[in-house]
Amino acid sequence: MITIHGTGCSLMDYLYTNIDLSSPPLVRAMSKTPGDGGLAPGKLVFAEDLERFLNKPFTDFLREVTGGRDPDKANVGGPSIVSLVNAAQLLEGAPNGGFRVAFFGGHGNDKTADELLDILAQTPLDVSAYREVEGVTPFTVVLSDPNADNGHGERTFINNLGAVLHYGPSDLPDSFFDADIVAFGGTALVPGIHDNLASLTRRCKTAGSIVVVNTVYDYRSQAKDPTGRWPLGEDDTTYVATDLLITDKEEAFRLSGETSIPNALAYFAGKGTKAAVVTDGSRDIYFYSKGTLFSKLEIQNLPVSESVRQDILNPRVPKGDTTGCGDNFVGGILASMAEQLDAGVPMGKLDLIEACSWAVASGGFSCFYIGGTYLERTPGEKRGKIARYYNLYKQQIGRNQ
Q1: Strand, helix or coil at 75?
Q2: Local structure of 119: helix, strand or coil
Q3: CB of 180 within 8 A of CB of 211?
Q4: Contact yes or no for 56/111 (Cβ under 8 A)
Q5: Which of 52, 156, 358, 392 is the most buried (most CB within 10 A)?
Q6: Are 362 and 331 in contact (CB under 8 A)?
Q7: pLDDT digit string (tens) for 198-231?
Q8: What's the whole-model pTM score?
Q9: Secondary structure class of 299 (helix, strand, coil)
């Protein structure tokens, strides 16, 4: 059995769709200088910082921009748990089976936790190590504008850290490190884990695990030093212990201090990261591999899915929003890695382009439902829907043989 264990950001997303990010209340709330507490498209701010920026309660601001309506949907969110749910759903529908995907984290004792756990119970993700800790369950308000970015959609996030302020390395049991793949997702929103990421990733490597790190916008570091390079853990040995790093373009630039994706990837490679993938919204993805986990690849790029793009622009195809696209992208990579390992592909020979193909299809499919987490009616349903985009994508990039 191939096992994937993950920790990092898990929360409840309260999603508001059809929000106009160019409306006067939102324009006034937009950041003027980096780290000032204002909103920024595609990025996250903390509710308390936004309150200081606006000099008004967060609840008043939310009422103003939404008209006081209830969220269109409450759904499980967070770069760690959403990616793991997608991986579990893809692997549940895999031809061979025999996989286990588990999340390790903390939630509060409140109604939000009840709602979150009820949703997760409808997925194949193992949440037996998702336990109660002090504080309210973390949540994020997502304001989504489907017409932004030339119709591809954009959103902005307002986060309350809550209970994860009390979750750290001592809360991870020894069993967490006993996995084929260990994934750290969005740890910048779990300070106790993020600030110890170097020691945690090193421990994973000592235990023989493959380490995957996928990032989220690090608002704490941005507010502390708007121009300096973001830290990834307590020191740069996190990069050395990371087999695969997955970031978006902005995060790659802030982590590396570079201003182009190829230069950012070269920086990660120079720091010792074995492979890395950088996404850029509706634009090409870039990646490399040193040949220790995946087959060796120089820095190169792949397009996003043309079939997804056509369906997004097709008025007859029901739309969702872009929330969770990046997280589901990560889940597609994790699932493909697990399947390749299960098929006996040796270390150094895994196929990163194959993994990225499942990732592109997974991220694209998430545009057709609201929120990051898709609830299946039957096991394997999601894999079947994503497989359509995967097969069309393989044809698009000339790898359909």
Answers
A1: strand
A2: helix
A3: no
A4: no
A5: 358
A6: yes
A7: 999 999 999 999 999 999 989 889 888 888 999 9
A8: 0.90
A9: strand
